């Protein structure tokens, strides 16, 4: 009957799915076995898995699969009965067995048959291990020494469980059923201790244990598409609820309001329920990692142990998929770059076996996933050198960077510290891709390292993607949604001041925010909503606007909007094909009043912000170097000078009268500290004046590194401009490192290092000595608490 | 307010249009654009809408009028005059432009037109090749010409109409071609 054939195909399909899952667990179990060869429950679990595959493949008539599983079972039986020990070699052979089984199952999935694969290699390997594994006989075997594979069913644990539900056996479908319906029972941390999985029913035994399936009410398999559909519907419901709530409140009908509130509660619960139904424990991704660590460790001569904590932490299955590759990459990195070879570890007084730790937990509405190693940590000096070598940064900028900023360079595209390109790492796409993947799903990556003690990478992953909290803003009368994960703070511009207190330096607008210069982009300008030029594109009627401080793609910037309406949970709707290539938007959403709002893509805005900062100057050199170098233009006497914006920590204006003579140098008291000041006019031989008797004020360009700062005094800060390509030409003048063409005029490039040393001859000593010694650079102290923190952190969101 | 009575009219396919017993004719949903009558295959038309709030999409290609909320679904609205390279619709007082909603696979696109016409059935034998005097986008989008008793109906190719710029079948550059580079920077 056709139904039978169809039923058979279904059974085979289910068998493939189950077996694939079981084999994934086997990887972890075998690695666990290597660590503890005497773990009998673990051995029994491994044995049962292989035995199940053997039994079912016999029943479904896959002879090669059966033969292979049988060979593996024979070897496993020896281990289980104590006739042999699970040596690393044995485990390697067993892992090969798992691979071969996986290949065969894939073959069955593709061709419907298991015939044609070359099994001789792995069979011979297994046979050799069975013959060679001479070991003491079992002291107290579970079964006699001659017990063959079928002994599994005599396993007391199995037997007990099997008797729990001894029903329907006769029908072949039912006999197959239990073998196929082995629901994985959420294996514990790392999948190392699966609780007695699945009695293996043999067709010729009557112990077909269908009761293993804990009853259909305990768990069901649900089609992923159905879950997606449910999620979409819940999204619609949330939107409808928003609309009903808005209208009910306006209606004044108490009955309607009550019903609306009830709808609110129910919709909220339903949303949480469906979100939870889509959740899977992170162990689904982690279970593959013990084997990754083992294989890579063996290959690279590292001894590594994987410890896991929080394997049952759940997150949305699509997000789980998104972190799969980043996690694998980070674990590989930890073994390859993090952990030292055993002898080096012993020399350093550490356990020769390195620890790679995976930790997961819920924190603040997000899932925090950590990959930590206790290896050598990251060498900031070496990272800087590599970044320089790769041309990711230039020397002056690098010198001006704090340790955390240098550490952050590992996230730059094209960065790789591996000295040789290997199959496992060194392709220069690693951390960059990790960060990109995480940001794409609204997450973030942080890196923390302590030299000699190890590194920790922290991934922050949102709980779900489909519904996200967003800030509703307005620009030119239109509403837009800004996802909150990139939002750091909101700052109101001052309506009393021109341009709301923002300053214009050349083509770029900046806001001084707590001593730092925050580049601003105006949403109106960015979206072309303002037909007036960007210079007049200021204050909308009734206020100066609000700056949303956003962080994405490695940079922080301020997005100027006309107003902020509310925060709201929004449902992301994709844009149609006609609009799909607009980078500015991540989608659209339906608002409570039925109107639509475009969802801004903060990453894309960050990129546009960079472009707006460097507008092509029609009069100047259109060939501006596209390396992102920005110059700060200053006036010193009659001369125009430029210095890389990267070295500028902040700008200050001080009355000339505040400058004080300290020996033959100048200094100014600033926030209770003495800040050495170099008068650039003096430095460049323009004039020697006595500030104390002069009127007016000076501009100070403050350069900070580590916990030290110096200020360069200039007459005026003129502009910020992109560096032109001609900047390497040398004039050979003292105090200068070259010249550049900016907006059609030649400006002199200040040799910042020389100038800083003239102000404070020991300025770089601390930092460079420590960097040379490979010790850590202290983070720039912003608060005393931060300064006291032992580890260096680079934060990227 | 001419044609206001008709804008809300439901589209009723002729019985022959979906019967399949008479494959020798096709049914067209007709509408007006700049004084001419155009038609879309009724099988591709999901519905027609009278009045829709259109949310503009800054930076979008010029032929995109914006987004409309179609019962919770976010649908792109295409300004058909601009898509066809016709002069912009004069901003006459109070006239609402109806939308013809067409299906494009999974996607749905709303086409903004001047006014809706009738649903007409045309025998295949009555369809003539498109006039070769058409220029610009029209030359690629008009698939034929059907003389009706009182005027000429120009059927349009839905697939080519809603294909994003760049993926549409190549069309010769005409003077009225509406494909200026997108404004990425003010």
TrEMBL record, chain A:
Record keywords, A-Z: Kinase, Phosphoprotein, Transferase, Two-component regulatory system
Region called Disordered, residue ranges: 134-217
Biased composition (Low complexity): 134-154
Stored CDD domains: HATPase_CheA-like, HPT
Compartment(s) of residence: Cell membrane
Domain annotation CheW-like: ranges: 467-611, 628-761
Catalytic activity: ATP + protein L-histidine = ADP + protein N-phospho-L-histidine
Keyword Phosphoprotein belongs to the record: yes
Keyword Flavoprotein on entry: no
Ranges for domain Histidine kinase: 225-465
List of residues that carry Phosphohistidine: 51
Documented EC number(s): 2.7.13.3
Residue ranges occupied by any HPt domain in the UniProt entry: 4-108
Basic and acidic residues compositional bias, start-end: 160-171, 202-217
PANTHER family: CHEMOTAXIS PROTEIN CHEA (PTHR43395:SF1), SENSOR HISTIDINE KINASE CHEA (PTHR43395)
Protein name: histidine kinase
